[in-house]
Structures are given as structure tokens and as C-alpha cells.
Amino acid sequence: MKVLERNFENKIDVAAGVVMWNHWDHEHLTVVHKNYTDCKLLHETDDTIVQLVSYRVPIFSFLISHSMGTVVLTKREGNGGTMQQFNLGFLGIPSITTIDIIDDGVDHCTVRTNYKFLLHGWKVLLAPLLYKMMEKWNRQVWLEDLPLKLRRHKVLRAGFQDFIGMPEKVADRHDDRAIECRIPLPRPADSPVNSYFNTLLKKKPGREPAS
After folding, report:
1. How many other C-beta atoms can be found within 10 angstroms of the C-beta atom of residue 109?
2. Tell me: the pLDDT tens digits for 15-24?
3. 3-state helix, strand, coil in the chain (%, to 5)
4. How far is CA 14 from CA 117, 166, 179, in A?
5. Predicted pLDDT of residue 207
6. Strands 36-44 and 80-88
7. What's the whole-model pTM score?
8. Best exposed site among 26, 140, 173, 203 by fewest CB in 10 Å?
9. For residue 4, which of 82, 100, 110, 90 has the smallest C-alpha distance?
């Protein structure tokens, strides 16, 4: 077996809670990221999700890969923390992605990402290609998410609240409190990522819909 590994670091002038929110906002994947084509959740708690995703493979965008992944929030530190994603996707290659969101100042954080691919047999030959793909994927996802994180930070600092909106009075549009991220994130019951919850998983066994 060969372990292929790469590390990346990005810094951004937004609160760590905003970056944490971005990583747990599953609805944005197919809207913001051009490579993701589908995302459905099978399980969700305050520190774990199991998801099915479909995405176009970097470099070979004509290929669509389907994977099942588990994301675990392993540590909360300040308004940031560490999460690990265990995935079985492209060509059945297991991968582990570790993301550290470091709250290192007021409205500033550092994001460190570690990718590991576990290659067996002939798949070892794919190492040079996967090495390049990791850089392309990390760069592309970061740039696509950047406007979303900056906008989210700006409106939260202006007093925005999810499902409520902005304060009516302009004079009240400011909020200097620490920006936190509570998991799981609230979302509409009919959200597309909930479709498996609302059909297969919540259907009572032995009962059929009325004709």
C-alpha cells in the first residue's frame, strides 16, 4: 500500500465560525461548486454526517464519480475546530481529509487541509495524477467558496439572522459578538439534501403509501 499525502494552508479575514458554517452547509455544494452535481444526507448529528455525493473529477471533468463519505467533527476549539472526512469514491480509492480551522484573531482564521489517499495494487500508478488533482481541487474549492464566506461574514456583522433577515432599523445593523456555528445547521424540511430523510429513511417498514 502507498499513502499519498499533501498539505495546504489558506488564511482568510473572516471569523472561524463562518468557515465552520461553510463546511457544514451541505446545501451550497451543488449551487456554489461547479464540480458537485448532487448531495444527499443519510445521517446527521451534532458532530457527524454520512453523505452521498456526485462530482466531476478534477482534470477529467467529463467523468462523474459517486462516493459515500462520513464527516466527523473531532474537536471544537474556540469557534473553530478539526473535522475529518472519510471517503470512498473515485475508482474506489479510500481517502481521509483532515481540516483544521484555527481561530487565530478577531475576524481572522487559518485553514489547514491534509489529504491522504490510500493506494493499493495497480492504483499506485495513479499517484502522480492524484498528487496534481489534490492541488487543483483544493484551489478550486477555496476560490469558489471565498465570496460565500466573505458575504456571510459581512451580513452577520450587520446583524443578519438566518430565517429572520436584517434588523429593520439601519442603526441596529451591527453585531460585534463572537460568530459561532451550531451544528447541525438549521434548514427547511424540504431541502434537497434531506430528500432521503423524507422518503427512504423515515418511511415506516411494512407500510405502503395509500393508492
Report:
1. 25
2. 999 999 999 9
3. 35, 35, 30
4. 30, 19, 10
5. 46
6. unpaired
7. 0.90
8. 203
9. 90
